[in-house]
Amino acid sequence: MRLVGAASILYSLALAFAIGGFAHAPRAAQEPPGAERNRIAEGREIFRFDTFGDEQLWTDVLRMHEVIPSVSPATALAVGLKVDVEALPAEVIAALRAGAVDLADPAVTLALLGLNAVVGVQGEVNEVGQLTSVGITCALCHSTVDDSFAPGIGKRLDGWANTDLNVGAIVSLSPALDDATKAEFSAWGPGMYDPRHHAFDGTNILPLNSPSIPVVIPPIYGLRGVGFETFTGDGPISYWNTYVGVGQMGGQGTFNDPRIGLFISQTPDLVTPKLGALLEYQLSLRAPEPPEGSYDSAAARRGKRVFRREAGCVTCHRPPNFTDVLSSPGRRVPFLHDPADVGMDLAYAERSATGKYRTTPLRALFQHAPYFHDGSAPDLVAVVEHYDGLFGLNLTPRQKADLVEYLKSL
């Protein structure tokens, strides 16, 4: 997309939309009648737009509202922030198509925030165009866009991991953090986050573990029937939503877990009452199908046999969800694996409530490289090589290639 040095009349219109009478674009469309559909629609609204009051962290403590006005859209896109094209008025879309919007101008960032178009970021822009507060939503990390308009600009893809998002680089812009913490966060890289490094109790940022061990931001589609959704199986979806919503996003609520020695209590609780609807929406998100032509169908059929027989992957990756996490009696306690049993590092697991790892459900693997909790496998070839060596499978080159094609088909 061409950048121009000066804002055109259409850009001025965009800014007028942002700070004038149209402070926020329409949100989720009305759902058809029905209690379940309404519950899902409510959950979508929460997922996309609810900050749970986390402005207390992002504005009051981290002071990100002081930083963002100097960040251009080009820089924001470069660190993985996404723009929802469906939140933009037609006039703004026309201006963008015409190259009449200067994406090097930080004022455009404020205009996009005023239009509620930055995925996962909620900003309040006053009548004179000043950003007065900023908060984040679940969609920041767990949504992306389809790039249908331009790279980083398109229609929302809820549930997809934003593997471009450089959370560490964004947070390290905060003027409230010391240089050592900024350097640690900046080292995370795109698509990575450390949920065990710190927590926020409503007033203070609490140190949990050091040094930082970032993990891959996971997709959250295809979760129905999985049971325990984190890498280490600490609890069901709503447990993790509370942990993240309160302790990581900085929302106002309550989270207590003696297993990790973390106790946070804030009133009123703005998180817990919304967990039910949020869960319904998350469970409604289906895993995407692999793109047509993205894998060799004949090789995938052979690879399915390798998966079930020679490689024995099906021992742990049991259909239909390709995990064994619910194989414990009663299904209330997760079935987990010692780190050494699956060739994973002990350090991150030790910081969790279980000390072990869950068998990752295999869904839409084409979409979210790198693989393993730490991103140590850059592609599916590396995944197959890891387990071939760990378990002494002695697969032939063709069997490995076929197995990769099968994994790409899931």
Description:
- The protein is an alpha+beta fold.
- It folds into 2 domains: 9-284, no CATH class; 297-324 and 359-409, Cytochrome Bc1 Complex, Chain D, domain 2 (Orthogonal Bundle), CATH 1.10.760.
- The chain contains 16 helices and 12 strands.
- A two-stranded parallel sheet has the order 1-5. Strands 2-3 form a two-stranded antiparallel ribbon. Strands 4-6 form a two-stranded antiparallel ribbon.
- The longest helix is centred in the first third of the chain and has 15 residues, at 35-49.
Uncertain parts = 1-32
The run of helices and strands is HHHHHEHHEEHEEEHHEEEEHEEHHHHH
Q: Report how far the terminal alpha carbons are from each other.
A: 34 Å
Largest sheet: 2 strands, parallel
Q: Tally the helices: what do you get?
A: 16
Q: Please state the overall shape, judged from the principal axes of the Cα atoms.
A: globular
Strand numbers in spatial order across the main sheet = 1-5
Mean pLDDT, rounded to whole units?
91
Which structural class fits the helix and strand makeup? Answer: alpha+beta
